[in-house]
Write a structure and sequence with these properties.
This protein is α/β, with parallel strands linked by helices. It folds into two domains: about 200 residues, D-Maltodextrin-Binding Protein, domain 2, CATH 3.40.190; about 140 residues, 3-Layer(aba) Sandwich (D-Maltodextrin-Binding Protein, domain 2), CATH 3.40.190.10. It is about 40% helix and about 20% strand. The chain has twelve helices and ten strands. Strands 1, 2, 3, 4, 5, 6, 7, 8, 9 and 10 form a ten-stranded mixed sheet that branches. Helix 5 links the parallel strand 5 and strand 6.
Amino acid sequence: MKTMKRIIAVILAVGMLAVQASCSSNDGAAEKGNENAASWPERVTIASGDTGGANYYIAVAQSQILNNAIDGVDFAAEATDASPTTNGPIVQNDADCLGFLAPIGLQQLLEGTYPDMPQSLDKLRLIMTGNATKIQFITLKESGITSLDQLAGKRIATHNPGTTGRAATLLLLKEMGYEESDFASITAMTPSDTADALKDGTIDVGIFNTGLPGAAISDLNSTRDIVMLQVPEDVLNKVIKENPAYVSTSVSKDVYSDMTEDCTVLGIPMGLVCNEDMDEDLVYEITKALNEGTADLAAAHTEGAEWNTENSLGFYNGGAVPFHPGAARYYDEIQGNNT
């Protein structure tokens, strides 16, 4: 198991280097049908998330929408660990990359207050917001665990340090009265590794932060009986009150076959960000294509419908995080704000 984890870690690291390398193809396309497009890159990569989660598959669908709408630029999704400490620097350091980031993580990166990333990543700008990833506490039915009150002394797995999912999970556990020392172990794993560890019996509870359905959870559920543990409502309410960027959301009992009731969980709204130096006209076209492509994204992924103009305008008009001028131009136009 340890050898396999090392192999997976090496593969993921190589993949992240490939994202950075592919982002650096900025020779420009010759013909794009836009008079200001001569300096647009030939390739734009979307740093998304782990293939065991939903973000990667949403990014794949977004790249297809963009390829159909924008001539001369090749958009492609690439898998990462989805953490702000990975996707943030990728976009910060290359104007030809897009990346998935939760607005709460984006705000902290800009301020230089994000854990494990003390320096400010001042070039990050928001384009659009979409689905809220969900913190899901999963165990196997055979474990006998039916409540989060039973976690003391158990082996827990959660997301890697530096991820918004891990930060939110630790807040929830703290609010439930747990300290990290209360567990037999709390191990950082990718969603795919967490599902494998549950199958192998090396952990008791896996905590996933993903959209619905989570690919790793669905794979686990295809061979094993799973249980999703309810988070107490008072715990959710207090965490959200103290951290307004989080939301209360729900996992329907129809998402995974073994669920018998809907489960209310903590949600983390996701966003698509770019570098402030990305060409304004290109960002405008990206913003326009994605906002007008919501129906296509909804057809491609269960949570695609949440990548819509209404959700994006909520953040844009709220003013808490900066949008790229190209995205701002689009949102101003559709609201009639231009003079």
